Each structure stands twice: as C-alpha cells, then as structure tokens.
C-alpha cells in the first residue's frame, strides 16, 4: 500500500493537523508530490494489481493513460456508512475527447495562473516593422505571450501589446499533418474569418510558413479554406475553390477519404469532424479554448510564421 498526497495538502489541513502532518508523513511513508496524479497513475500503470482509491476520475489524464478506461474496476472511492467505511466504484467510464480536452485545460489554466482576462482580450502590436503590425491594424491572430511580470507581449517581436477591446466568443482550432502530429493551435473568434492557405496571408495561417511544413504542402492552394465561428458557437468551413479540394471526415462515418466539399458552400463542423486539405494537412475543433499545455511558442523566432493571406488568386 502506498499513500500519495499533493504537497498543498498540508496547507489545507486544520492548524492542529498541520503540526501533526510531518510525523504522519514519516509514520505512513507518505509520498508528497506537487501533483499527486503524476505519481499515482504511473505507479498503477506499472503494477496491474494495484487499486487506486480516489474520488478523482482522472479525466484530464485520459490521453496519456488510455488504460484507465480499459480498467474502471481498479478505481474506487470511499463511502461513509455511519461508523464504517465502504469502498465503491469511483465512476470511471469512457469520456468524449472534447470533455477530456476541456478538463485538461481547466486544470492547466488553474495551475499556470493564466489570466483569463488576457485571453479574452483582443491585442494589437504597435511596432510598424513587426509582421503582426502589418496586418489588420496590427491585430494578432495567435495568442499573446506573457513576460515575467504578466504583461501581454507580441509572440513575433516580443514588444508590449495594446488592448483594443474584448474578444468575442472563441474556439480553438488544431492544425495537424496527415499522421496526426500537431503543427499549430490558433483561436477563431466570432465575426473574424480565418483563412488557411499557402504563402502570405491576410488574416490566417500560411502552411509553408510553419517551422516544419508537412509533406505535399505545395498541393494546398494560396487561399484554400475559410473558417468562421458563428454566434451560436458552431464552426463553419468553406472551400475557396481550391485546386486539390477539401474533404470532411464526419465522426462515426466508415473509414475512407470522406466527402469532398462543394466549392464556396459552407458546411458546419461537428465536435469530432476532421477536414483534410489536399490530403496534406488536417484541421479540427479542439475541446480546449485556451493555449495551455503546449510547449511550442513563436516567441523569440527570428522569422515567425506568416499569418496574413494576400489576394494572389487560387492555384
């Protein structure tokens, strides 16, 4: 038997118990960790006979530990019955990927102390030589980065940003290669269209400007796909007459190439639908709303990815 506790537990104990806690740690061999989950789950994964006693269903860890859903019988909670205690199933069950993303985001936002007010604000870069400042009056498409004092800075030039108003409802989109490797996360805001294409862009993502462009990215048209977030929270996609087309893979549909979008015709994306652009990259709606848990950053890049799409015609 092993006892694992968050290091923050001692601060939440009544004052009298705080004084006793060090002795209990020694007596019971308690393992203290900044995040107990990160100790408990690897221990249980490596020891199939171990049971986990917790009221946490570990939803935010389902991607790293898919075995959790395969063995719900190993997760128990406790229930008081008068003077006795009983162990009961904790309620672990399969969860939709959208909920897994949202749970992970909520914990990361809390742990990082991210200011939601910053993430819910539209920002402008005032440096006339900055890539971001040359588009849409300097309004950023990507998320700002924070300095050590918590101030919002441009992810391209690292200059201080100016708030230009509240950000409307947002959702986060994920761009990945055909094997599923993530390339970029970016927000889409209600009322602000985003275009994915190749080359320079007006307000969108230039695929060939990414640090590691996917194979066959040359098949993507200069203005390939327009994405829009409607006031009702639904994301729509429009193929802009691309040469090699866009296909949609609906959740639950049989495996295959999916259906090709009709040019200049909007389709609504479901939570688990995938768009395939010229069989080069894929796009889907993330369950997360904010840029947490992503090690990549554009900060400090001498040549940041271009994020404005010019009207150069469709190829």
List the keywords:
Tumour Suppressor Smad4; 17% helix; six-stranded antiparallel beta sheet; single chain; 315 residues; 6 helices; five-stranded mixed beta sheet; alpha+beta
Can you offer a commentary on this structure?
The chain is of the alpha+beta class and 315 residues long. It has 2 domains: 4-95, no CATH class; 116-285, Tumour Suppressor Smad4. Helices cover 17% and strands 28% of the residues. The chain contains 6 helices and 20 strands. The strands form 6 sheets. A 6-stranded antiparallel beta sheet has the order 11-10-20-19-16-17, with no helix packed on it. It has a 5-stranded mixed beta sheet with strand order 13-12-14-15-18, with no helix packed on it. Strands 3-4-5 form a 3-stranded mixed beta sheet. Strand 14 and strand 15 form a beta hairpin. The longest helix is centred in the N-terminal third of the chain and has 16 residues, at 97-112. The termini are far apart.
